[in-house]
């Protein structure tokens, strides 16, 4: 528990223009957390790839199989909510026509808070 709180305290030292509240609100969405963590190693991911990752992670965490409807829900949530919000926060560029992410610019502190290690 202490490590988790220690990681959260790193947000107060972030060198972005975003407040801690903005970052915590953004990270409160599980799909945002999964997406940001995945983008660490895959900065040019496609919408389909991200939906697959979300379904896979959720299936593993819940000890069940992912379904086609899980994929469709994740895809729609990414397209209409997650990726536009990350784009609005200037953490990446989302091209809805190409259904792809580019120009990932996530502050390293967010990766640290999410437990993404090099």
TrEMBL record:
DUF7344 domain segment(s): 25-101
Entry superkingdom: Archaea
Name of this chain's protein: DUF7344 domain-containing protein
UniProt source species: Natronococcus pandeyae
């Amino acid at each position: 528990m202490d490590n988790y709180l220690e990681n959260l305290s790193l947000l107060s030292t972030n060198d972005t223009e975003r407040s801690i509240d903005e970052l915590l609100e953004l990270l409160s969405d599980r799909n945002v957390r999964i997406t940001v963590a995945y983008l660490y190693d895959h900065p040019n991911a496609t919408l389909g790839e991200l939906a697959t990752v979300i379904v896979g992670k959720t299936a593993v965490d819940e000890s069940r199989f992912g379904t086609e409807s899980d994929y469709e829900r994740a895809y729609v949530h990414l397209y209409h909510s997650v990726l536009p919000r990350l784009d609005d926060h200037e953490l990446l560029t989302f091209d809805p026509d190409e259904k792809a992410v580019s120009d990932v610019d996530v502050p390293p502190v967010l990766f640290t808070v999410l437990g993404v290690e090099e």
